[in-house]
User: Which sequence fits this backbone?
């Protein structure tokens, strides 16, 4: 599920096939340095070399395993922090049914691993044994190898937590910063400073934050409302409140820049929603019937949307039509050919063993911003010369659209004034594959 | 004893207002055999389908095939009456009876706020004859005939809860029902949210059963609507509220102040505005905050282009009717302290006369609605075209006549006015416009091929809308031949 899974599986197969980490990826962006977060692909390739079964299956099992591990660790942390039994159960219930967590546990990506590692690290950090502290540091060192961004985010939470709540661990913090910096320095040394992204990869509309409104891995609307109750009725010390409010505020800002932060944010939401729901249980209301019905409705709402989201995950990309399209590329297109498609399809194209022009792994991508501008000019080309120039510059052999990317580019636009007009009318473009969701054109020179 | 008599007289008068309202409506409804809007036939098709085959989930005819996501409660309700009468009769008469209860609800709301039965009766009378309400509900089998009374009944229950907590069960039940009736239930939620904000900003207390009722109804309505319209929410997100209606059809930029005055009526606007001023700035009345919140919520939706202008005006007009009561109460109390107190009866009579005269323009609205109703002859022409179609081909009609094609010709249309979950609405709307406006037959043929159109319907309404007498490119008679006609309503067959 999700295009990132296809990237990770491909990288794992490359690493497993070559028995070492290669220096160059010939497919992504028409060729780029092998500058990926390799933690997850390496884990997959190691297990694959021990148990040589389908790598998709391995990644599926591992994701579920790390999902369960995360829940267990969260429960233990809550226990250690003296949350009541009802609170612990409700928090875990809300987290299990939260769309972001369900998505993360089904995705073959480093997200769920970093969450599990963060929990383990936090749990170990709060023990009194030095060996546990050392293990905690080791785990912190591993996190950036799985995700640069999550590594920074975890470090930020750690800094905030130790500075505001537990200053006795200042020494631990300093060592943690040093340990985690090693990974970043390694990448900076090897690949230099990544090009800043000058375009908006995420649509910041509210729809992308709530799964009930159609987001692929958004928050649960009702959990968010309940978490507001939880925050409102917080009876903690002043410094804990400051920590929580800062964390919430920064997380919201970061989520608007990097949507994947929602995976971590959904855990915070689950914790405070659990607190809010517990308070609703214990509060005295003037009308008992309204109180009971409200609680019932909220629990049913969270359960319903959690369960219906599980049903929805079956229809998340790639759908059967896209899988057929990938199959066509894999079997009929030469590996030296280049397919022009929206960057959201990029990982599927490279999974089929074909070169793409752009995909959604932006860090260290070559001429990222220029490619983005060029691709947009191509998709919205209003004269054939602009389209021809792009085809020549990037040696485009095939053009691919699926329903999702087509709508993303042309919904509510007069599509017949852009590239689709030429694809339908210029004889140099011939459809070589078409099903209900995907169309692939071959470009004849 | 005197008080009891007074109360009884008030209820007799209330019953008279109800009967007057109902008779007024029925007298217009019986003037025609047909329903007065294209969308009525969407309801009629759904209702007949529901009675015969169950819920219509996929419609082969609308948009030449599309999913239907529509709340079924209305059809369950009307469906019950089809045990005693035909579906078309039930859809003609039951909504008229339902909407006639609205003045009764307004009476009880105003009475609760101002504690004066006669002022409440006056407000009730004017609320029964609001032009925009009539224009949107008369002889149209409109779902708002059910939704509006329920929403205002919910407001009444909410206000009444503070005085009588025994009504809490009724409030709970109607919260569920309201959520099932129509997405417009969100307006109730929005009003409660604004109400909470207003009370907090004015440092007024919001606790006890009132706070609990607000929380409950916000949660219930939101969750039930999310569940019922799950698919539509996933497809459109928040835009679901306006039901995927094309922006150009939602825009209120072209409406003037005169339109607003005409739709709402002068009395509710003048006294309603005074009521808001008095209620908020002088007496800080809770109930006035509630109805002001409703107006604020509606204005927000209007500004964001998330609500149909006429539906918005319906809610604003009814809120003004309630607030008129507040203004009148203060006005009459104020009179007591002036030298005009001896002439109070003169003012009251003037008000009643003004109220009765304000009903007069409503006749024009009602006649207009009935005049625009589809005639039996036009139906006959559309049915004849339906008889000609023996394959899967499509009939192109204006978007406001798409449901006629579905219902009477039992044929596929290119587009109609039910936009939720409909495919490529903007594109189809633009294509339909181009077919009627174009001079170039070849370009039109390309468009028609896209939708497999074999017949084009050009009605009198469409001619007026697009300012044409006939299809401009059909004059040479090569590819477009006129095949059916009644008066100005024509069908063209596409031959190329």
Assistant:
């Amino acid at each position: 599920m999700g295009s990132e899974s296809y990237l990770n599986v491909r990288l794992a197969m490359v690493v497993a096939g070559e028995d070492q980490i290669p220096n160059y990826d010939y497919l992504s962006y028409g060729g780029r340095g092998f500058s990926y977060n390799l933690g997850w692909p390496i884990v997959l390739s190691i297990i694959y070399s021990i148990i040589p079964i389908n790598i998709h299956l391995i990644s599926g099992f591992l994701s579920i395993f790390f999902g369960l591990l995360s829940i267990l660790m969260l429960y233990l942390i809550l226990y250690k922090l003296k949350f009541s039994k009802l609170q612990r159960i409700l928090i875990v219930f809300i987290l299990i049914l939260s769309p972001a967590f369900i998505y993360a546990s089904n995705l073959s990506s480093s997200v769920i691993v970093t969450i599990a590692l963060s929990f383990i690290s936090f749990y170990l950090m709060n023990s009194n044994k030095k060996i546990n502290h050392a293990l905690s540091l080791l785990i912190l060192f591993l996190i950036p190898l799985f995700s640069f961004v999550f590594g920074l985010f975890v470090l930020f939470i750690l800094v905030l937590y130790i500075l505001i709540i537990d200053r006795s661990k200042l020494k631990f913090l300093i060592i943690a910063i040093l340990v985690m910096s090693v990974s970043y320095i390694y990448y900076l040394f090897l690949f230099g400073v990544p090009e800043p992204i000058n375009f908006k990869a995420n649509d910041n509309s509210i729809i992308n934050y709530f799964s009930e409104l159609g987001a692929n891995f958004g928050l649960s609307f009702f959990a968010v409302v309940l978490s507001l109750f939880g925050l409102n009725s917080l009876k903690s010390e002043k410094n804990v409140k400051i920590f929580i409010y800062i964390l919430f505020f920064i997380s919201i800002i970061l989520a608007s820049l990097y949507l994947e932060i929602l995976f971590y944010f959904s855990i915070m939401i689950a914790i405070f929603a659990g607190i809010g729901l517990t308070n609703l249980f214990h509060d005295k209301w003037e009308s008992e019937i309204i109180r009971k019905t409200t609680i019932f409705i909220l629990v049913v709402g969270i359960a319903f949307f959690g369960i219906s989201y599980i049903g929805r995950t079956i229809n998340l990309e790639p759908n059967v039509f896209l899988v057929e399209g990938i199959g066509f590329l894999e079997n009929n297109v030469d590996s030296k050919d280049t397919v022009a498609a929206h960057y959201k399809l990029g990982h599927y194209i490279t999974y089929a063993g074909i070169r793409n022009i752009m995909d959604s792994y932006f860090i260290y991508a070559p001429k990222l911003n220029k490619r983005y501008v060029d691709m947009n000019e191509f998709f919205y080309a209003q004269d054939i010369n602009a389209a021809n120039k792009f085809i020549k510059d990037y040696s485009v052999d095939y053009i691919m659209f699926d329903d999702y990317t087509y709508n993303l580019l042309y919904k509510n636009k007069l599509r017949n004034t852009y590239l689709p007009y030429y694809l339908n009318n210029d004889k140099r473009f011939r459809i070589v594959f078409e099903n209900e969701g995907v169309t692939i054109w071959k470009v004849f020179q | 004893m005197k008080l009891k008599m007074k109360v009884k007289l008030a209820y007799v008068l209330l019953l008279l207002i109800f009967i007057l309202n109902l008779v007024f409506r029925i007298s217009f409804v019986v003037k025609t055999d047909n329903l007065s809007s294209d969308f009525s036939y969407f309801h009629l098709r759904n209702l007949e389908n529901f009675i015969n085959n169950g819920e219509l989930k996929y419609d082969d005819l609308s948009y030449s095939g599309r999913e239907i996501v529509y709340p079924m409660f209305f059809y369950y309700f009307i469906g019950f009456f089809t045990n005693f009468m035909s579906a078309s009769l039930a859809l003609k008469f039951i909504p008229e009876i339902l909407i006639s209860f609205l003045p009764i609800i307004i009476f009880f709301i105003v009475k609760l706020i101002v504690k004066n039965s006669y002022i409440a009766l006056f407000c009730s009378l004017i609320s029964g004859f609001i032009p925009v309400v009539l224009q949107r509900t008369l002889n149209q089998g409109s779902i708002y005939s059910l939704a509006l009374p329920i929403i205002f009944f919910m407001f009444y229950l909410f206000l009444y809860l503070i005085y009588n907590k025994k009504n809490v069960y009724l409030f709970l039940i109607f919260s569920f029902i309201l959520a099932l009736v129509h997405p417009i239930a969100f307006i109730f939620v929005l009003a409660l949210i604004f109400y909470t904000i207003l009370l907090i900003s004015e440092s007024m207390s919001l606790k006890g059963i009132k706070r609990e009722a607000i929380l409950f109804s916000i949660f219930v309505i939101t969750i039930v609507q999310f569940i019922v319209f799950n698919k539509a929410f996933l497809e459109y997100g928040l835009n679901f509220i306006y039901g995927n209606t094309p922006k150009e059809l939602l825009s209120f930029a072209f409406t003037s102040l005169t339109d607003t005055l005409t739709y709402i009526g002068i009395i509710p606007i003048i006294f309603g505005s005074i009521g808001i001023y008095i209620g908020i700035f002088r007496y800080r009345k809770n109930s006035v905050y509630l109805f002001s919140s409703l107006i604020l919520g509606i204005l927000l939706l209007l500004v964001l282009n998330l609500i149909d202008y006429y539906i918005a005006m319906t809610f604003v007009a009814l809120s003004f009717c309630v607030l008129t009561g507040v203004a009148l109460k203060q006005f009459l109390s104020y009179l007591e302290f002036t030298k005009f107190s001896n002439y109070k009866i003169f003012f009251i009579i003037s008000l009643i006369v003004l109220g009765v005269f304000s009903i007069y323009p409503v006749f024009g609205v009602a006649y207009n609605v009935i005049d625009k109703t589809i005639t039996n002859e036009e139906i006959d022409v559309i049915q004849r075209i339906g008889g000609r179609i023996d394959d899967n081909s499509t009939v192109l009609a204006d978007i406001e006549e798409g449901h006629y094609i579905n219902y009477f010709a039992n044929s596929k249309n290119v587009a109609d006015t039910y936009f939720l979950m409909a495919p490529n609405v903007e594109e189809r709307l633009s294509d339909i416009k181009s077919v009627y406006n174009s001079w170039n037959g070849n370009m039109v043929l390309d468009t028609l091929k896209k939708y497999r159109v074999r017949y084009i319907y050009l009605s009198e309404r469409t001619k007026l809308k697009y300012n044409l007498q006939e299809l401009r490119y059909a004059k040479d008679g090569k590819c477009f031949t006129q095949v059916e006609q009644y008066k100005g309503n024509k069908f063209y067959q596409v031959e190329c």
Observations:
- The mean pLDDT of chain B is 87.
